């Protein structure tokens, strides 16, 4: 457990620590929000800042070690709340309003506005993926793995890849096992061998890939996770 993870846990019941954590991580909160909006955030005038700030506080309230790294988790909450915010505004409702429009209503939205909205959504998704890749690479580096390695260390055979993913998900879902994995920085070899009936040497070849699966499945990597299959 990192210092910020521990502080996040303590901040759930300590208002002073919570306020300090929020204050110290305002640059991080702004960065997360700006990756979603694709533009500079004015903390005095932009609604997105308030939404992101509340989302960070919400992340503290609901965080526990089972959710993985706090910063990854809080980033996911911030993105999710900003998406919710946009869905409630015209920017995300334009297509729905356009479909419901009748001739009596008159032109509520022009075609170029609709296309612009769709492009904006695509931009948000692209920015989101870039941020996920950056954060994943930072997490992987703690295990001496780089994001660029993933394609090379991925099992080529579908059955082997499926087995590695099952092992990664098994570790992630078992709270005690996951805590030991994070603390010891190594795979629980004997437990894997016993539960999956495969020799250590076989899955050791794909150690880095399994570690990557555990990290990705720990949360905060919604888009990247769709590629793990």
What can you tell me about this protein's structure?
- With 229 residues, the chain is mostly helical.
- The chain folds into two domains: 3-141, no CATH class; 147-225, no CATH class.
- It contains 14 helices and no strands.
- Helix 1 (3-11) crosses helix 2 (15-24) and helix 9 (158-173) crosses helix 13 (207-217).
- The longest helix is centred in the middle third of the chain and has 31 residues, at 111-141.
Please, how many domains? Answer: 2
For the sheet with most strands, the description reads: none
Please tell me what the overall shape is: globular
**Total strands:** 0
Task: Tell me the layout of helices and strands.
Blueprint lengths: L2 H9 L3 H10 L1 H12 L9 H16 L7 H18 L2 H11 L10 H31 L8 H4 L4 H16 L1 H10 L4 H8 L3 H5 L2 H11 L4 H4 L4
Describe this protein with a few key phrases.
mainly alpha, 2 domains, 14 helices, 229 residues
């Amino acid at each position: 457990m990192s210092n910020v993870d521990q502080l996040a846990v303590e901040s759930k019941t300590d208002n002073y620590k919570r306020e300090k954590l929020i204050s110290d991580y305002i640059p991080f909160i702004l960065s997360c929000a700006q990756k979603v909006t694709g533009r500079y955030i004015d903390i005095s005038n932009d609604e997105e800042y308030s939404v992101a700030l509340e989302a960070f506080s919400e992340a503290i309230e609901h965080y526990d070690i089972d959710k993985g790294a706090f910063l990854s988790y809080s980033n996911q909450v911030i993105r999710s709340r900003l998406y919710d915010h946009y869905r409630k505004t015209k920017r995300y409702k334009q297509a729905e309003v356009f479909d419901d429009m009748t001739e009596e209503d008159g032109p509520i939205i022009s075609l170029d506005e609709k296309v612009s909205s769709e492009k904006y959504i695509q931009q948000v998704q692209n920015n989101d993926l870039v941020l996920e890749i950056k954060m994943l690479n930072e997490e992987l580096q703690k295990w001496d793995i780089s994001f660029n390695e993933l394609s090379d260390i991925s099992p080529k055979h579908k059955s082997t890849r499926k087995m590695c993913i099952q092992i990664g998900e098994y570790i992630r879902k078992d709270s005690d096992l996951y805590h030991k994995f994070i603390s010891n920085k190594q795979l629980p070899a004997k437990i894997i061998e016993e539960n999956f009936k495969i020799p250590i040497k076989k899955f050791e070849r794909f150690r880095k890939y399994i570690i990557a699966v555990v990290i990705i499945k720990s949360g905060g990597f919604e888009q990247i996770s769709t590629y793990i299959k």
